[in-house]
Task: structure prediction
Amino acid sequence: MENKIDEVVADVKYTAKDFSSGLEVKWCPGCGDYSILAQVQRQSPDFGEKKENIVWISGIGCSSRFPYYMNSYGFHTIHGRAAAIATGVKLANQKLQVWVATGDGDMLSIGGNHFIHACRKNVNLKIVMFNNRIYGLTKGQYSPTSEKGKITKSSPYGTVDWPFNAIKVATGSGATFVARTLDRDPKHLQDMISRAAKHNGLAFIEVYQNCPIFNDGAFFPLTEKETKPDNVVYLEHGKPLVFGVNKEKGIMLDGLNPVIIDLNDGKHSINDCFVHDEFDENPTRVFLLARFTDLPGFPTPIGVFRQFNKATYDGDYALQIANVKAQKGIGTYEKLMYSSNTWEVN
Result:
């Protein structure tokens, strides 16, 4: 009977509506979170998972209301601990596809330690980080990704902090899938979500997301029709880095230094451009690309920075337990209590 039920469920054709909880969505009008939610719900039917096998874990922040709006299992946890709790969920039931919804403050500030170790261990999680470069829920303090000099309620004279570059952090910590996308580019956002769902290992997606109340327009140069062509370069495997309204600009390397070139000046051609290789395991390429956001006049890369496969923490964890059981048999509580490391007091 159980097998027949599984077969019936497997044949269900989901739609985006099947992944909507029907609860009233309580974000500010114009918030980029609405787009992220919509694109996730649209792509969820293509994850190849039963609805009951998908879990959303979140921490604290505007983004962390996400599990309420998904018609799947979910857990709204505590500040910064989403990656740690998601790791526990994955280890407890490896059949689950575990997603994390988090913000730049939640994941890169109090949650930074859990984030880097989830990346290092290559736990099979999908982490979607909503980056609006501000603390929205607590009303507008600067965050770990706020630009230097940012004037906020907690930095009235401008922050003196240097911001985190999330792509560098994820790459340096060992994430095996690293991507960036935009809240106002729904097709690209859908593609990044879909690709993360199919990746076996720690998949990290940074979503540049607008906060209309406390940091409105932070990414408008990257999202508005008039300015986007000159400020965004799409990362596509095997293709040269070109941008501009008519794709008239390119990026070449002078040693390890990126240089913008004019493809119409008669001196350069598309053959001079840096060609993207997302399957290169060497993190040097990613760090070169991630630098663009720090260089004046350079476009912001969006797309998959890199992806590769290696053993996952949860996979090796299960394998180790199976090997120990094969060698020593299935343990019992009594065996544990009376093992050589215990003693009896009379």
The chain has 13 helices and eleven strands. The longest strand covers residues 300-307. The radius of gyration is 23 Å.
